[in-house]
């Protein structure tokens, strides 16, 4: 069983290197941690500070005007919003991709997400629901 786990870990590392072009950056990819509508996210180590970060890759961000506008909107919002309830943008860079430039957004790594809580299909305690609602409303305010 140990050899099989090693093979799976090696395949996951190769897939990460294929998906995330981090050569020439101060970031070392560790593992993929999520997939969303607009990109994929990996956990990485910032070698300058040894801190853990999340890197969101927006593939072929400039391939169409719609994708370019969406990417620009996200970057503009994250660059100028500083709030306890919004993950800050720490860095960004681009790399050539098969359909145009890929944009990489480097953010603080969070241990969980509201999306994972919602998708867990577990019944939440009313206090936890109230806490999440409070945090969402505080972020909107």
UniProtKB/TrEMBL annotation:
Transmembrane region(s): none
Recorded superkingdom: Eukaryota
Entry keywords, A to Z: ATP-binding, Nucleotide-binding
Annotated GO MF terms: ATP binding; protein kinase activity
Annotated residues for binding of ATP: 57
UniProt protein name: Protein kinase domain-containing protein
Organism: Plectus sambesii
One Pfam family here: Pkinase
Claim: ATP-binding is one of the keywords in the record: yes
Residue span, Protein kinase domain: 27-141
Keyword Electron transport annotated: no
PANTHER family: MITOGEN-ACTIVATED PROTEIN KINASE
């Amino acid at each position: 069983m140990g050899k099989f786990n090693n093979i799976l870990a090696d395949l996951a590392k190769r897939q990460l290197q294929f998906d995330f072009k981090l050569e020439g950056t101060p970031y070392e990819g560790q593992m993929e941690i999520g997939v969303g509508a607009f990109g994929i996210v990996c956990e990485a180590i910032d070698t300058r500070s040894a801190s853990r970060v999340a890197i969101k890759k927006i593939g072929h961000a400039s391939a169409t005007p719609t994708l370019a506008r969406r990417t620009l909107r996200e970057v503009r919002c994250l660059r100028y919003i500083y709030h306890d309830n919004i993950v800050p943008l720490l860095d960004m860079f681009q790399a050539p991709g098969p359909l145009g430039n890929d944009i990489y957004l480097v953010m603080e790594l969070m241990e969980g997400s509201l999306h994972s809580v919602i998708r867990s299909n577990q019944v939440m305690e009313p206090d936890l629901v109230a806490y999440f609602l409070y945090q969402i409303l505080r972020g909107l305010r």
